[in-house]
Amino acid sequence: MKQLQVRAEKMMLAGKWVQTSQTFGVYDPQDNRLIAHVPLSSKADMKMAIEEAESAFKNNQDWPTHDRIRVLKGAVDYINENKELYAQTIASEGSKTITEARGEVKRAMQTLEISAEEARRLKGETINFDQNEGSENRVGYYYRFPIGVVGAITPFNDPLNLVAHKVGPAIAAGNAIVVKPASVTPLSALLLADAFEAAGLPKGMLSVITGSGRDLGETLVTHSAVKMVSFTGGLDAGRKVAEQAGIKHIGMELGSNSPAIVMSDCDIDDAVTSSVAGSFGAVGQNCIGVQRIYIERDVYDEFVKKMAFQTNALKVGDKLLDETNVGPLITEKEAMRVEEWVNEAVEKGATILAGGKRNGAFYAPTIIADAPEDATIVKEEIFGPVVNVFPVDSLKEAIEKSNNVNYGLQAGIFTKNLDHAFYAIQNLECGGVMVNDTSDYRIDEMPFGGVKNSGLGREGIKFSIESMTEPKVVSIKL
């Protein structure tokens, strides 16, 4: 994988680069240009990858921590040496601009670096058995051990870093992992496998199996050797995974419909700039992107006017140009869905304040006012460059409306008042509250996940490692 012209790719199956008799095309969503032919793997391929992963894990159960650290840091070095190739690949197969893609490469390196650091910190603790009468002659401790094979299913919107968020913690914990990347963006995941191969990862500990989720997902999720399923994707697919998985660890990040609250005492210009970035970054295809903004009524007109001005100034176009702010959605079909949701809201009385136009897979950054509560674009996750704005009369009203959806990943509030901030922190139903930031703020070390239909468990390297390990108690009678 050394160039960006149309090429025939191989996939990583148990440490070997293999081809299959059938392939599928990977296309640039901007112009539908064919980028690569990628193996269309079968259920038998997936089954082989899992069984080889199980064998590799058993053969590497004494894999020392220092060697896991070496491999993870070696992968970081390899990515750093080839970072422009990684960025170009992300931007070509997905929706991100080249600037956003370079940022994702940097984050992926940090994710793996943190994974190496957390491998060093994977510890247990001693247990005071003498707290129990009759156990004065016992000492002991617990430690954490790797669960075995992790099955990972990843989405298209962060095709490198979200894969790194599965692979890094799995390797840090000493597990083997089988990754099924999104079929529209598999190239970045294959490049990540390149990095681990170059770093000397033991054969079989990583597989990246490309193909249809419909054909491969059930095998990966239900196989008895897979002890954990780590899934990032849509709610409907997540429900199916949960139904199929059976008794095993499950980690799920299923998206959101994130709110931001703008209080009249905040720095309005900062809130506007942050909200534009949080709403339209990665063309809105971001699980923590801002979808609803609740603004105190006395600053509503000022905020909306400034936000519309900044939104209209965003440059939509060629992803590979440094000056481009917003690229295409992942497919024209997705852009058409966004268009349908906007049109439905308008038919129900909403007003378009900016944007509202589609051109193929491109959809202009759009601000909508007056959308009714029952509009799809208010209740569900838009996953596109559209944000709803609403005036409110109080913080309590803003929080009640913020909570009035079946998601709860992250939220933001802009205020200079600590009482307002802590009231929001305590009452917003979500996994993270960002004060004087939008919901679209994350560092890769922090616990990341949500409540309600936003998922199960938490990612963030330390927290992922905990879910990919089990504690074992040791008691010694003296």
Question: Main sheet?
Answer: 7 strands, mixed
CATH C-level category of the largest domain = Alpha Beta
The CATH homologous superfamily of the largest domain is named Aldehyde Dehydrogenase, Chain A, domain 1
What structural class is derived from the secondary structure elements? alpha/beta
Oligomer: single chain
How many whole angstroms does the radius of gyration measure? 23 Å
**Overall pLDDT score:** 96
For this structure, the CATH topology of the largest domain is: Aldehyde Dehydrogenase, Chain A, domain 1
The first-to-last residue Cα distance is 58 Å
Question: Can you offer a commentary on this structure?
Answer:
A seven-stranded mixed sheet has the order 15-18-19-14-13-21-22, sandwiched between helices. It has a six-stranded mixed sheet with strand order 10-9-8-11-12-24, with helices on both faces. β16 and β17 form a beta hairpin. The chain is globular, with a radius of gyration of 23 Å. By secondary structure, it is of the alpha/beta class. The protein has 15 helices and 25 strands. The protein folds into two domains: 7-254 and 454-477, Aldehyde Dehydrogenase, Chain A, domain 1 (3-Layer(aba) Sandwich); 258-449, Aldehyde Dehydrogenase, Chain A, domain 2, CATH 3.40.309.10. α1 (43-59) runs parallel beside α7 and α4 packs parallel to α5 (161-173). The longest helix is centred in the N-terminal third of the chain and has 23 residues, at 98-120.
